[in-house]
Predict the structure.
Amino acid sequence: MMANTFKALFLGVLSTVFWTCAVSAATAPGGKPAAIDFKREILPILSENCFACHGPDEGQRKAKLRFDRHEEALKPAKSGDYAVVPGDVKKSKLVERIATKDSDEIMPPTKTGKQLTASQIELLTRWIAQGAPWQEHWAYVQPKKPVVPVIKDKRWPKNEVDNFIGAKLDKEKLKPGSEATKTTLIRRASLDVTGLPPTPQEIDA
């Protein structure tokens, strides 16, 4: 009885220490936490390590918990616990389960052969601390026409795409190269189709 109580207390302290350190670890200049990009940083982690048991396949889903849909990820699991509580790391069971050293409790389960890295655990923890912001897959998001940037050399662009290229050049303090001749453009197009010619060394080989 005492052993189980001590184990629970130890895991609780360990989890508290971990999430406190993790949340304060990654900060932007000025001490402000760096914003998490869900699609670039969080979704790949969930997809690779969680979707097999907590994804779209109802037949394989465990604990009635899924992470492929935002509203589902915020619902209580079969146990009644909440895996993700936006802005509250302590109440988010996900943080406790991915940070624990208990092989029977850790997620992903040891038997899956998957193991989160320290940086992945830190990202998930910081994501929840920031309110667990979510972004739908691009295929489900209605496209919106972006604002065409204004660039210094207004004579250079021939279409709106050039404005975006020119804005990047302005930011990097670079100037566009001279316009290619028709001969050069034809040569580039042909090389795109046929590939680069072999070098003398490749021919001899």
Notes: Confidence is low (pLDDT under 50) at residues 1-26. The two ends are 74 Å apart (CA to CA). The chain has nine helices and no strands. Residues 2-25 form the longest helix (24 residues).
